[in-house]
Amino acid sequence: MCAALSAREQGASVLVLEAAPKDLRGGNSAFTAGNIRTVFNGVEDIKALVPDLTEEELATTDIGTYTEDEFFDDMGRVTEYRTDPDLCETLIKRSLPTMKWMREKGVRFLPIYGKQAFKIDGKFKFWGGLVIQAWGGGPGLVDALHEAAEREGIEVMYEARATGLITDDDGVHGVTVKKDGKTMSVRARSVVIASGGFEANPEWRTRYLGPGWDLAKVRGTRYNVGDGIKMAMDAGARSFGNWSGCHAVGWDFNAPEFGDLDVGDNFQKHSYPWGVMINALGRRFVDEGADFRNYTYAKYGRVILGQPGQMAWQVFDSKIIPKLRDEYRIRQVTKVRADTLEELAEKMEGVDGKAFLDEIAKYNAAVRTDIPYNPNVKDGRCTEGLAIDKTNWAHRLDEGPFEAYQTTCGITFTFGGLRIDEDGAVLDTEEKPIKGLYAAGELVGGLFYFNYPGGTGLMSGAVFGKLAGASAGQKAVGNS
Ligand SMILES: Cc1cc2nc3c(=O)[nH]c(=O)nc-3n(C[C@H](O)[C@H](O)[C@H](O)COP(=O)(O)OP(=O)(O)OC[C@H]3O[C@@H](n4cnc5c(N)ncnc54)[C@H](O)[C@@H]3O)c2cc1C
Predict the structure, then answer these.
(1) Mutation test of ligand 1: which of 135, 195, 257, 270 has the most ligand atoms closer than 8 Å to its C-beta?
(2) Which secondary-structure segment (H or E) carries 458?
(3) Are strands 15-17 and 155-157 parallel, antiparallel or unpaired?
(4) In what order do the strands lie in the sheet with 182-187?
């Protein structure tokens, strides 16, 4: 939708093809909480995005900063320095201007008080570089962009699945579309592909991500099956990025096969840094407190998928239960509760209870209780001497009642895709732009490898959408 609005700004006439029916429109974007990672250099930048913040709110909030350098550091660190430097620079440098542009288009933002800030000494302090969310979450964001599109005369055709590109030696001249069982051609001077990755396609997942990925649950839309990537590659586009990588999280074990818009992202279970994760063998298998959840959650889905039965239980005691994120309190949750660890062990389906009790005893004995706990920083309150130590936020599990939550792997989106240039144009296998073809969003390869800093997907969709839309619009009106 950012691409459509940006192309329209150039004076182009724009048609959006949406494979989903109207009530399921907006792809993965609609399933998000609307959290967006942007550069900001202080409170003035946040005020520009959230002008309705009151003086009282400002006085009780330590917003901090998130500079370009910090964003670069985060992207570098989590992608093990594989992120494409040019793409990464574009994303980061254009993040704040693109946020301001979205606001001008009618998207409203607010600070993420609930999940990204803890109140300490009467003041909210934000952590992990993520401060802003769209008003109304993902659905609010999608609605605001569609309303802007309607105001600006952009037509959206629903249940219209693009099936191929109309091409010749001079480039791309439109798309073929299947609507109401009939295939038709839509001619256009330029085309922006923004149809997501291949996360909802079990066959492609198994082919590219590897064995076992057919068993993952899809967190979001069922419509992102790799169509855009396939049609571009059929037209000669180069594949690019981490094709064997994806964003995947701990997700309720009994969640449906695809996302449910009524539940949104609440099947996720992201308070694991404060507890322990146990597999079917009764063992911990990962450092739950390696980093803030923003920097580990996207890679731990893969780790859970690799456990026996693709399953893990998250375990908490009464010190932590009141602090669990909202998503732990939904109705559709797979949870057990018991007064003692022994009773809990019996209730945790599929787990070797004896091994679990033994594991917790060893864990409890290893916690450095002399180091103070502080959720706002990496507090270094660790365990010592375990095969897999916990690096931060370690608590003994010793105060009942106890709760355990059963999770599996939920895939969010795939990292591999197409190669684009600085104008958002899709490159062919000789690294030359395919005339008239542009791309944005999840299907742009090269930004994310192995992992991802939370809130970057929407920012990438917006930044590269605006960029690709502007180039496509200029081409359409004959200015390039
Ligand atoms: C549960 C969940 C929570 C998330 N939370 C966050 C978050 O808080 N912050 C964040 O930054 N990111 C989050 N993400 C990631 C984020 O959703 C994506 O990175 C981002 O929305 C991708 O935008 P996009 O426009 O590329 O794709 P999408 O928003 O998925 O849009 C793709 C569109 O293409 C359509 N489509 C697909 N195939 C065709 C076809 N052949 N013809 C026509 N239309 C087609 C789809 O129906 C859809 O409307 C989350 C994802 C999920 C699933």
Answers:
(1) 195
(2) helix 456-476
(3) parallel
(4) 160-168, 171-179, 182-187
Tell me, rounded to whole angstroms, the distance of Cα 380 from its chain centroid. 27
For the whole model, what pTM was predicted? 0.95
Distance between Cα 285 and ligand 1 center (Å) = 30
> CB under 6 Å to ligand 1: residues?
17-20, 25-29, 31-36, 161-162, 194-196, 219-221, 223-224, 227, 259, 265, 412-413, 441-442, 455-458, 461
Residue of 458, 459, 463, 467 to mutate, ligand 1, most atoms within 8 A of C-beta: 458
Sign of the dihedral defined by the CA atoms of residues 333, 334, 340, 343, in that order:
positive
Q: Which residues contact 391 (CB under 8 A, 6 or more apart)?
A: 287, 289, 290, 291, 378, 380, 382
CB 368 within 8 Å of CB 384: yes
CB 302 within 8 A of CB 248: yes
Q: Which atom of ligand 1 is nearest to the CA of 34?
A: 8
Protein residue whose Cα sits closest to atom 3 of ligand 1 = 32
Contacts of residue 161, Cβ cutoff 8 Å, sequence gap at least 6: 17, 19, 177, 178, 179, 223, 227
**pLDDT tens digits along 153-165:** 999 999 999 999 9
Spatial distance between the Cα atoms of 431 and 422, rounded to a whole number of angstroms: 12
Q: Judging by beta carbons within 10 Å of its beta carbon (0-12, 13-18, 19+), is residue 149 exposed, middle or buried?
A: buried
Peptide bond into 401 cis (omega under 30): yes
CB 107 within 8 A of CB 145: yes
Which DSSP category does 1 fall into?
-
Using an 8 Å Cβ cutoff, are 125 and 118 in contact? yes
The Cα 168–Cα 162 span in angstroms is 18
Above 80 in pLDDT, residue 44? yes
Average pLDDT, the chain: 96
Report the distance separating Cα 467 and Cα 170, nearest Å: 22
CA distance 189 to 438: 11
Work out the pLDDT band at 50, boundaries 50, 70, 90. very high
Per-residue pLDDT, averaged over 242-248, amounts to: 97
Give the tens place of pLDDT for each residue, 379-412: 999 999 999 999 999 999 999 999 999 999 999 9
pLDDT at 116: 66
Biggest alpha carbon–alpha carbon distance for the chain: 72
